[in-house]
Amino acid sequence: MPSVAVHDATVWYELMGSPSEPAMVLVSGTGGTMHSNWGHLVPTFSKKRRILLVDYSGSGKTTDDGGPLSVQMLVDQIMAAVQAASLDRFDLVGYSLGSCLSMTIAAQHPERVRSMVLLAGFFDGSDRRNTLQAGLWLDLIERDPVLFARMIVLNGMKPERVSAMSQADINGWIQAIVQNNDWKGISRQIDLDRRLNVTGVLDKILAPTLVIGCKYDQVAPISHSREMARRINGSSYAELDAGHLAPFEQAHEFAQLVMGFVG
Questions:
Q1: Beta-strand pair 9-16/3-6
Q2: Model pTM score
Q3: Which of 4, 39, 40, 142 would be 84's cystine partner, CB 3.0–4.6 Å?
C-alpha cells in the first residue's frame, strides 16, 4: 500500500478499482480500519466506482506522534490521500466518526465532493450521554479489552440479531474485536469522539447528501441522524433496521442505498 506524509504523520491508503470509474472515498468509524470497516463492501462498490480507502491516525499502519487527535488533523490526512491518489471529484461515504470527518470535508471542499452518504453519524460528541459512553469505553479498554468487546457486541446490533446468534458466533465477534483493534489508537479516537462538535459545518454542505440512520443504534442514537438530515439543506433520509454495526448487520441493504443514491 502507498503512504503520504501529512505534518508528523505517515498516512497509509489504498486505491482500488478501475481508473475509468468515478471515485468514491470511504471514511471509517472509530476503531475501524480501511479493511475492517469496508473490505466486505469494496467488491460491490468497486463495480461502478474507483475506491479510495484511508487509515487516519489511530487506525491501521498509519503512524504519528501519538498526541491528541482533532477533526481537522484527520480531515487533512484524508485529503492528503485524495491528493496523492490524484482524485479530482469524488463521492464520499462516512460511517460513525467518519460521518463527522466527511461532513467537514464536504463543507471545506465543496468543489471536490460530488455526493455524500452518512451512516450512523453524529455531529456533537460533547453531550452528556456521549461523554458518559466514551468515558465508559475508555475505562473498559484500560481494564480489559475483552469487556469492551463484549459490550460492543451486546450494544452494536439489533437486540433480536444478538439473541439469534450462536455462542460460537458471539465468541468469534469478541475475538475479532480484541485481535483487530489498536487499543492505543482507538482510545485516542474515542477521546476525540467525546470532544468534537461539527455542528457549524451542517449548513455549509452543498453536496447532495443521503443520511442513513439506524433504528436500533445505541452508540450514535438515531436522533443525531434525523437532526443531521433536517439541518443539511436538501438532504435525503433513510433508515436501516439495524444497530450501529449496520455495515455488517445489513451490508447488502446499506450497499443498495449507497449505490442507488450515487448512481
A1: antiparallel
A2: 0.97
A3: 4
**Where in the sequence numbering do the catalytic residues fall?**
96, 217, 244
C-alpha cell at 76: 487533512
pLDDT tens track for 231-246: 999 999 999 999 999 9
What are 113's three cell numbers?
A: 465532493
What is the maximal distance between C-alpha atoms in the chain? Answer: 49
Cell numbers 466527511 label which residue? 102
Report phi then psi at 257, rounded to 5. -60, -45
In single-letter form, the type of residue at position 55 comes to D
